[in-house]
UniProtKB/TrEMBL annotation:
Protein family according to the UniProt entry: Belongs to the peptidase A1 family.
Entry-linked Pfam families: TAXi_C, TAXi_N
Keywords: Aspartyl protease, Glycoprotein, Hydrolase, Protease, Signal
Keyword Signal on entry: yes
Domain Peptidase A1: start-end pairs: 112-464
Signal peptide, first to last residue: 1-27
UniProt name for this protein: Peptidase A1 domain-containing protein
Length: 475
């Protein structure tokens, strides 16, 4: 390249405020100020979504909202319980990055949302579910091609593949489709080697997303108000979805997997990502965030770390729970409840609302709490097993609920994370009863008011109390 042309290129990059990441082969360029990427997170019931040209059906009252969350949790739990274990995968550490988020409520298979820009030369913007229990990033997508699924969407924005010259489908006859994507619901249909690689990504029951695997350009913002352009990012061009309304534009897969968008960014920025969830009932102007690398804000001073158990046979983030205490008393829960290798264990999940406890743990926890709430009038509601009239209720009278991890770390959630406001004047114990074969799931309401760091390189989960307010959020 001649010197004038080089100077022109450098000037264009500077003027456009874009830091380009060349991710093909071994060519990578990272700016010195790329300390983090921050995605803004927001709730399904947040007014933010009204400005996103998408209608997700705001519930008429708090009880309607709560029922909607429970319905989504119940649909999701079957899929989560069906996964089993495998071997741990190791990853290599590298630099850091971050992205902002806002608080929200569950829809379909997720609770919190992020803005996502994909395509070129003019990136198209979408609202995606941030889901730590799935790995495929996909959005509603229109691609008219032979052998592709029929286009079928009733709501949400749609990625127009024809408007992006960087869009490339993955051929079904290649190694990527035949070997690498087999575990990600790639279909065997391959009438010709160049036919797009099809998928039917199952979430639970008959609820799934169908489309073609493709590579595309993704644009994300950095802390220093620059942007990075990621090339050849694997995503799902979904042309047909059986996921129930209300539903956003798609899903950002944050699970532990070689095709996960989270692993792609984590590998570039310190091999870690984090998020912080404000109270799901807090005002919509309070921001959540999803960060890659070092966060834009300060970490909590009282951080604790526990082992993050990673397996290449599923996408979940498993934690090694040793027990639960209510008040100062350790509950009598059989150790096999937490034994991951024998079908038990617990995961931490951003897409499940209430905390789900396996049978023995659920029974012990409910017994411990109900005994302390007998003075309140019980209310029969189709929400959780125990609800009561909240007149005279004070959080200070409720015994502390603590999840103990095998290496000594302890999660002490806020009282409002397990005594839930279900309706006006009504509170409920925020635990879901189990079904046969259920694993335990630490849901996002139990996680609220805390900062969570998924350190993939060290196989550590860090957490600590936080207000979760992000300064100067950028999406």
């Amino acid at each position: 390249m001649s010197k004038p042309h080089l100077l022109l290129l450098l000037w264009l990059i500077w003027c456009c405020n874009v830091v380009v990441f060349f991710l093909q082969a071994d060519a990578t360029f990272v700016s010195n100020d790329t300390t983090g990427i921050s995605f803004e997170m927001f709730h399904m019931h947040s007014p933010e979504l009204k400005t996103q040209e998408i209608s997700l059906g705001t519930p008429k009252c708090r009880l309607d909202r709560f029922m909607q969350l429970l319905e989504n949790d119940n649909a999701r739990r079957t899929m989560l319980s069906s996964h089993r274990l495998g071997q741990r995968r190791m990853m290599i550490q590298s630099p850091t990055a971050e992205i902002p988020l806002r608080s929200g409520a569950s829809v379909g298979h997720g609770v919190f949302y992020v803005s996502f820009r994909i395509g070129s030369p003019h990136p198209q913007k979408f609202v995606l579910v941030a889901d730590t229990a799935s790995d495929l990033t996909w959005m509603n997508c229109k691609l008219l091609c032979k052998g592709c699924p029929e286009f079928n969407f009733s709501s949400g924005r749609v990625f127009q593949a024809k408007d992006s010259p960087s869009f490339q489908t993955i051929p079904c006859g290649g190694k990527t489709c035949q070997e690498d994507l087999v575990q990600s619901f790639a279909l065997p249909d391959c009438p010709t080697p160049d036919t797009p690689c099809l998928y039917n990504y199952s979430y639970y029951g008959d609820r799934s997303a169908s489309g073609v695997f493709a590579n595309e350009t993704v644009t994300v913002g950095l802390h220093g108000h620059h942007k990075i352009v990621l090339y050849h990012v694997l995503f799902g061009c979904t042309e047909s979805s059986r996921l129930p309304p209300p539903f956003p534009d798609g899903v950002m897969g944050l699970g532990f997997s070689s095709i996960s968008f989270a692993m792609r960014l984590a590998d570039m920025f310190g091999n870690k990502f984090s998020y912080c969830l404000v109270d799901h009932l807090s005002p919509s102007n309070l921001n959540n965030y999803l960060s890659f690398g070092e966060p834009q804000h300060s970490k909590p001073q009282k951080m604790q770390y526990t082992e993050l158990i990673l397996h290449n046979s599923d996408v979940f983030y498993w934690v090694n729970v040793s027990g639960i205490s209510v008040g100062d008393k350790m509950l009598n829960i059989p150790p096999e409840t937490w034994n991951i290798t024998n079908g038990g264990g617990a995961i931490i999940d951003s897409g499940t609302t209430l905390t789900l406890l396996a049978e023995a743990a659920y029974a012990a926890v409910m017994d411990a709490f109900i005994g302390t709430l007998t003075k309140f009038k019980k209310v029969e509601m189709p929400v959780t097993e125990f609800c009561f009239e909240a007149t005279g209720f004070q959080e200070s009278s409720v015994p502390n609920f603590v999840i103990h991890f095998a290496d000594g770390a302890k999660l002490e959630p806020l009282v409002k994370s397990y005594i839930i406001d279900a309706a006006d004047g009504i509170k409920c114990l925020g635990f879901q009863p189990p079904q046969k074969g259920d694993i335990s799931i630490i849901g996002n309401i139990m996680q609220q008011g805390h900062y969570w760091e998924f350190d993939i390189g060290r196989s550590k989960l860090g957490f600590g109390p936080s207000s979760c307010i992000l300064t100067n959020p950028k999406d």
